[in-house]
Amino acid sequence: MATATAALHLLLPTRRRGRLLVSRACQADSSTTTSRRGLIADAATAAVAAAAAPLLLPSIPAARAEDLSEWERVGLPIDPGVVLLDIAFVPDDPSHGFLLGTRQTILETKDGGRTWFPRSIPSAEDEDFNYRFNSVSFSGKEGWIVGKPAILLHTKDAGDSWERIPLSAQLPGDMVYIQATGEQSAEMVTDEGAIYVTSNRGYNWKAAVQETVSATLNRTVSSGISGASYYTGTFNTVNRSPDGSYVAVSSRGNFFLTWEPGQLYWQPHNRAVARRIQNMGWRADGGLWLLVRGGGLFLSKGTGIVEDFEEASVQSRGFGILDVGYRSKDEAWAAGGSGVLLKTTNGGKTWVRDRAADNIPGNLYSVKFIGDNQGFVLGNDGVLLRYVG
Questions:
Q1: Boundaries of each Photosynthesis system II assembly factor Ycf48/Hcf136-like domain copy (predicted)?
Q2: Helix (H, G, I), strand (E, B), or coil: what is residue 35?
Q3: In terms of CB atoms within 10 Å, which end of the chain has fewer, N or C?
């Protein structure tokens, strides 16, 4: 719009000069033939200027349309190169939240995510470790943070103060996910498939599964699971449904696993698509979505844990899609490499590309909706997008 405005200012004096020259040419009509030629030339200049001015007007609403984008980028006080990994807000105070990332990044907001400031937690800075904080979750004023190397932080006052909870050195794998489930209660998952629950503020943990994924795969390797072996017994991604069920993708993407409350073991499943799985998660209606390498997106037929999927129509331009977040049963957003941002308004059957992030030179890793009107997209190099509706 600035360019169009500048061009408009440049044209207006030309029109004024044209009118003055025409007037002088009329006064000198009997002098020479060159005055007549000048009159014709000046009249033509004025006509061109008058015709050009209206052509500039459509650029004004186009620029305003960009301002009405459903996402805005939020500036963060962090170093370049930080990858943002998780975000959560205090349920009783939606304006108060925490943002986690690599390089020991913990940020806090008090205005719903519009501005952020670094948060120092002394108990997480006592040792010479560069922590990668993977997951944060709140239930009421009680909150949890887990990271790598193994660290567990707990708050009972909505994050005003944090305490560090000791962990066993025998913990199998790295902690990648935690979910606050109630007063003094939480559920924690490691990348080797261990699930632990606590009901006394993290001082004691009980195993919810009897063995790691590696042990399960070795025990069931002859059951027909393609590519199952000891060396693929870790997770690439893991996602939890509201009812407590989990879906996880193997580190090589050649199969996926599920777990439901009450089961003693993870259940491995062959992938129903040719390409390797990138990520999986839960739709708002209780079904599954599945992303494959190369930008494909599939939806399960029906709800719950099934193995039958059908491909959805997406415009990913060949870039990988890395995550999907549902705002409602009908509306969802998908994000991926090179600033890919896609939207669906029919539950995921068809997707269209949103250009809000086209100029962001980075990858978008995670889509999080905290409520109908509060959502965020997390990426690398400190990229954070806030949903503005």
A1: 66-388
A2: helix
A3: C
Answer yes or no: are the C-beta atoms of 81 and 357 closer than 8 Å.
no
For residue range 62-102, what is the model confidence (pLDDT) as tens digits? 333 343 479 999 999 999 899 999 999 999 999 999 999 99
- Rounded CA Rg of the chain: 29
Distance CA 266, CA 85 (A): 25
Give the Cα separation of 96 and 109 in Å (integer). Answer: 5
Q: Which residues contact 22 (CB under 8 A, 6 or more apart)?
A: 39, 42, 43, 46
330-333 contact pairs (CB < 8 A, 24+): 332/283, 332/284, 333/367, 333/375, 333/377
DSSP for 125-190, written as a single string? SSSS---EEEEEEEETTEEEEEEETTEEEEESSTTSS-EEPP--TT--S-EEEEEEEETTEEEEEE
Q: What are phi and psi of 186, to 5 degrees?
A: -160, 165
**Mean pLDDT taken over the chain:** 82
Cβ-in-10-Å burial (0-12, 13-18, 19+) of 371 comes to exposed
* Dihedral angle computed from the Cα positions of residues 80, 82, 86 and 91, in that order, rounded to the nearest 10 degrees: -50
Q: What is the pLDDT of residue 52?
A: 40
pLDDT band at 347 (very low <50, low <70, confident <90, very high): very high
Please tell me the predicted confidence (pLDDT) of residue 225: 67
Alpha carbons 352 and 95: distance in angstroms, whole number:
30
CA separation for the pair 106, 78 (Å, rounded): 10
Asked if omega into 149 is within 30° of 0 (cis), the reply is yes
d(CA 95, CA 1) in angstroms, rounded, equals: 34
Residues in the chain: 389
Average the pLDDT over 175-190 and give the result.
Answer: 97
Q: Please check whether residue 143 is in contact with residue 180, taking contact to mean a CB–CB distance below 8 angstroms.
A: yes
Query: Whose CA is closest to 154, among 130, 124, 116, 128?
Result: 124
For the record, the structure tokens of 226 come out as 């393609």
Cβ atoms of 380 and 83 within 8 Å: the answer is yes
- 189 forms bridges with which residues in the sheet? 177, 195
Hey, what are 386's tokens?
A: 């806030």
What is the widest separation between alpha-carbon atoms in the chain?
108
